[in-house]
Amino acid sequence: NIQLLVERPDGTYCFRLHRDRVYYVSEKLLKGAASIPRDSLVALGTCFGKFTKTQKFRLNVTALDFLAPYAKVGRALPRPARPLGPPAARSRCLSCSTRCG
């Protein structure tokens, strides 16, 4: 529920769009950053995700810490990466691709 993210016990937070990215920012930080021009502002708060060129929203891994307490089913964790196998097999694949490619 977005209302739980916005109205927290430690202060009021909001979502801001800056250069196709959505940031989760406290209002205190937002008021302090109002004096900085938008062109020179790099980032503000925590990046929750970004809009792609086709206007689809992609959620960043940094948002999972904020969303996990409010997940209804299971955990909000990314899947673990698959292991690559023994180091010898990786070096053979890399050397083969460099020779052949």
Automatic annotation (TrEMBL):
Transmembrane segments: none annotated. Residues 7-61 form the 60S ribosome subunit biogenesis protein NIP7 pre-PUA domain. It holds the Pfam family pre-PUA_NIP7. InterPro entries: NIP7_N, Nip7_N_euk. It comes from the Eukaryota. This is 60S ribosome subunit biogenesis protein NIP7 pre-PUA domain-containing protein. It comes from Anser brachyrhynchus (Pink-footed goose). The lineage of its organism: Eukaryota, Metazoa, Chordata, Craniata, Vertebrata.
